[in-house]
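Priority: medium. Attachment 1 of 2:
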């Protein structure tokens, strides 16, 4: 099916360069979608926290910076932001942090930037992360708290 799809928009004269590009972006997005949640891979986030973030907070820099490529709908970027915030608080540091989160999909970036999620997404979120970093908008929406959201740039 992929070959037929590719041939249809790459060869077919009805498609112009802009349409071809837009179709490729859509196809890439569809092929790269996967299940995303906060702290999706607990083991990976634990390792990141223990081996990288715990060292970053002790660096002699005024601001810690991180990049989250392929950020999808933002949960990984927000998860890393929560870990950084917790680690800085734990060591009593007044450093700031900035996370740059990027994705090929403008739709995903817009969703992530809004920082609004359905309550079901929080059912497996451990600890007090939900209470500390999110607040209810209404019964169907929960939003990232501005103190975390302001530390992450989506583009």
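Attachment 2 of 2:
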């Amino acid at each position: 099916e992929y070959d037929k799809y590719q041939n249809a928009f790459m060869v077919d004269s009805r498609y112009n360069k802009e349409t071809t590009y837009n179709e490729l972006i859509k196809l890439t997005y569809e092929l790269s979608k996967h299940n995303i949640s906060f702290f999706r891979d607990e083991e990976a986030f634990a390792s990141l926290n223990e081996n990288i973030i715990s060292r970053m907070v002790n660096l002699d820099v005024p601001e810690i910076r991180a990049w989250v490529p392929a950020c999808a709908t933002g949960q990984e970027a927000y998860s890393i932001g929560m870990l950084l915030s917790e680690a800085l608080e734990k060591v009593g540091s007044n450093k700031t942090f900035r996370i740059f989160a990027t994705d090929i999909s403008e739709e995903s970036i817009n969703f992530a930037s809004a920082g609004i999620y359905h309550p079901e997404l929080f059912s497996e979120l451990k600890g007090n992360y939900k209470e500390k970093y999110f607040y209810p908008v209404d019964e169907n929406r929960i939003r990232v708290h501005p103190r975390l959201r302001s530390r992450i740039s989506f583009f």
